[in-house]
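Run log, item B.
One chain of 535 residues. Sequence copied directly from the ordering sheet:
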Amino acid sequence: APMGMAPVSHVLFNKFMRFNPKNPDWVNRDRFVLSNGHGCMLQYALLHLFGYAVSMDDLKAFRTIDSICPGHPEAHDTPGVEVTTGPLGQGFANAVGLAMAQAQTAGTFNKPGFDLINNYTYCFFGDGCAMEGIASEAASTAGHLQLGNLIAIYDDNHISIDGDTKCAFTEDVMKRFEAYGWHTEYVEKGDTDLQGIEDAIKRCREVKDKPSVIKLTTTIGFGSQLQGTGGVHGNPLKADDIKHVKKQFGFDPEKSFVVPQEVYDMYHKTADAGAAAEAEWNKLFEKYASEHKEAHADLARRLTGKLPEGWQKCLPTYKPDDAAIASRKLSESVLEAIYEAVPELVSGSADLTGSNNTRWKKAVDFQPPNTGIGQWDGRYIRYGVREHAMAAIMNGLSAYGTLIPAGGTFLNFVSYAAGAVRLSALSHQRVLYIATHDSIGLGEDGPTHQPIETLAHFRALPNIMVWRPADGNECSAAYYVALTSRETPSLLALTRQNLPQLEGSTIEKASKGGYVALEQEKADVTLVSTGSEVA
């Protein structure tokens, strides 16, 4: 992938993308996602050439401990890397989330004369990503949502680890995407036809009501003596082949880690144009402040990652004599209480809205306006029965930097999304998993729906908080900590059955993660429990 996708990368980054290496966090930058993350050496090389804080020594430390160039891209490790990818298909779904976040943020903040948020999301993906179910779920979602700001480029090199893809993958991928509602393009000679690549991207950018995919037929290991074979998939080239490649492309075969100055100059020119674009955007944002003061303050605050002042005062509190309520309903009460105070919070469900209680009464759905069932600035997302895509899309929504996503399903079916939940934790995304029906209390549906091992699984996962509130104050505490933890996802395990309000529970106590509910002097046994078992 790094060699086969180098030509399209050169065209895409230099001719189309807007970004500023001196400020990788500029909100209106174009986003790039490498879903086939094993090709990350290409991305690291590009970041170095454009002047991001990735040095030649960093490139030399590729795939070594403590390197900022790890074996798969990791957000927060490498300047310029948007999301953590590696498990195939995850990045594709992240890209859908990034594009959705752009559309929602634009719908919220763009005003006449102020096209503040108009960036594109570009995603590279390969045959492996295309085979994964999560990519199908996400592609279906993107097509339904008419995300014209999303352009995916399919590295069609016909090679997988097992060899030629004809052994397992022979479908017509473009017909699949057409069925999902995508615009499709095809460039036959992806190794050399730079003009064809440029023209295809231009045509995609002209399509505003559909996501686009470009099928790019490439040669894996392009230029190598082993090009087009599985021998260059995940294996370093031998010394004599490296010299062969250098000769092919006009480099001194005896020199390594050398970039001609004219190449740096060309790439830095693109970076300078991106810095100028950000400077112009900053002027527009200043003017926006004078005409749309409240909206400007809201967006500026969101970009700091801070929550609105005093929002926590909206959290519901309970007394022991208050009515017994299921914690999924307590969660709904929290959302109802805070949605106005925390405008960056977006909620949703994988087709279980009425069971998960994830939608506040006045919520507007996030939908293309031409559907007649929602608006671009809507804050409720209908994910459909796509748990895995929902979780990975939420990682993209969070990574965009203006939204805090929450999404619901049954606790047992968070297991369907486990790959993406793991990446929420690894990439430090503030994502809330609202996981209802959390025990064998879901008896009538049988063992297929009962989450027996699920809590142990996610409690064992580093950098995720698993909350299982036992009453209303504990539920409010779970939301308080989840929303204030800027680099940690949270899973809220919630009941279907009613729970009494406990003596002595408070938001302050529960926020610490645990407290003594009942104490007996000279006790022989200490019982530790969570959720419905406490009551």
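Observations after the first pass:
- The radius of gyration is 25 Å.
- Residues 136 and 452 are 29 Å apart (CA to CA).
Flagged for discussion on Thursday.
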